[in-house]
Design brief:
The protein is mainly α and about 180 residues long. The relative contact order is 0.14.
Length: about 180
């Protein structure tokens, strides 16, 4: 940089960031916006509702059925996971309604387990399935504002659920299976 010169202060030239983005888009420097594939997104979201409802019920069931020292160690954690699952279920139902869809009411089945280890392994399996189903919605969200908001909501749910899978896997003494 030549002596005596300086970097311009933000906004010094009177151009806003929004104007610069508009100019780039107009000049072909940015891709056009892709609209949400609404029917496909709603279909994929409704598939996740059955899995998300199962998640809330399954964590509640396992939290309530854990016995002995395992109850002391894991019961409260599993119950916290259940309440987070229920909150995300509500958010997903709201999103389906906001997009003009009819939220599915099916619930994927839950089951009893003979041991805590079997229950945790099953939760890892079913939560991994739910994470993948949530990820399957994202390609249909497009990149306009409402679709971007949906994508980010899904990513937050996926992140939270994956952290649960990691916690359950560690409780089992196993690494998280990331190979699908």
């Amino acid at each position: 940089m030549p002596a005596g010169s300086r970097n311009p202060a933000p906004g010094e030239f009177g151009w806003s960031a929004g104007f610069a983005l508009l100019l780039l888009r107009h000049e072909g420097g940015m891709a056009e916006r892709d609209p949400m594939e609404l029917e496909e997104a709603l279909r994929a979201l409704n598939r996740t509702l059955a899995l998300q409802a199962r998640s809330a019920l399954a964590f509640t069931h396992v939290a309530g059925s854990v016995r002995g020292l395992a109850h002391q160690a894991l019961g409260a954690q599993l119950w916290r996971f259940a309440t987070e699952e229920l909150d995300d279920l509500r958010r997903l139902v709201e999103k389906v309604v906001a997009l003009g869809g009819e939220p599915a009411t099916d619930v994927a089945p839950i089951r009893n387990h003979e041991s805590l280890e079997d229950a945790l392994a099953w939760l890892v399996e079913t939560e991994t399935e739910a994470v993948e189903a949530l990820a399957d919605v994202i390609p249909h969200t497009g990149n306009e504002g409402p679709g971007e908001a949906l994508e980010h909501r899904l990513e937050h749910i996926i992140m939270r659920k994956q952290e649960q899978v990691d916690t359950l896997s560690r409780a089992l003494g196993e690494p998280t299976n990331r190979s699908g």
